[in-house]
Amino acid sequence: MGPEKLCLSTFDVKAMSRGASAKNGGRLEERAARGVIPVMDTETPMALPKRSPVEILWRDDSVVIVNKPAGLLVHNSKWAGPKETSLRQLVARQIERQIYPVHRLDRPTSGVLLYALTREAARLWHDQLSQPDTRKTYIALARGWLAGPMTVDHPLKDGNARRPALTHFQPLAYCAAERVTLVQAMPRTGRQHQIRRHLARTAHQIIGDTTYGKGRINRHFREVYDLHRLFLHAAALTITHPVTGQRLHLQAAPPPGLQRLLHQLFPDETARLSEMQLPHYPCTLVIAR
Description:
Strands 1, 2, 3, 4, 5, 6, 9, 10, 11 and 12 form a 10-stranded mixed β-sheet that branches. Strands 7-8 form a two-stranded antiparallel sheet. By secondary structure, the chain is of the alpha+beta class. It is built from 7 helices and 12 strands. The longest helix has 11 residues, at 119-129. Strand 1 (55-59) and strand 2 (63-68) form a beta hairpin. The protein has one domain (28-275): Pseudouridine synthase (2-Layer Sandwich).
């Protein structure tokens, strides 16, 4: 697949993370001192509209599956700020019952996320996520031209140990004007920041990633396209229901801000992208026209 001639709403930032740093980007305070508009670090919470309902993709007696907004922690943890509300709290309040985290998405990542409704269900769904027939599919906007399918098989430090990590990548569209590729990512393991770290290792850093990305490129997309977040979205999940045995195909549309950027970068391609079959996944990429 060769290069083609192709050429978000913004969340307000609650606060800049004190001392937050990013590779090739510098400390936020240092950027501000240089006259650069303060940028939200991808690990800093974003302000969300009050009482904005979380989109529920699937719910039954054992699980609730939602479309996670960017900027929220999956659950309260040591990374939470003072009085910060987690997505777990919002969803529990919305469905009026206790829920239990099954897996995680990074704070700046949006998309398909599971919560179990009982502790036993949490164990069952967690085990099911690690089964070979489970497929997690993400879309990312990556630096440079990804000429064809790519597999990164490189161990990553997870906690105190280096653990195997494998991710398959497939280019979906290329914008020559900005030299970025819309990429499908399919992680086969679940290490922290796996997709972000694997793309950074191959010099295809994700746009908007202030931890592993390029500060100069991030600033460009912030100033020209008003992109103030990481362009990484968990678009789809195929999983066998551990209780009923039903095969579930779930998909979450990218939030409006990311969709607007896709229309800007790929004006002649959004119709094709919205109708195309995602490689290795039995559904289409949901892009509003």
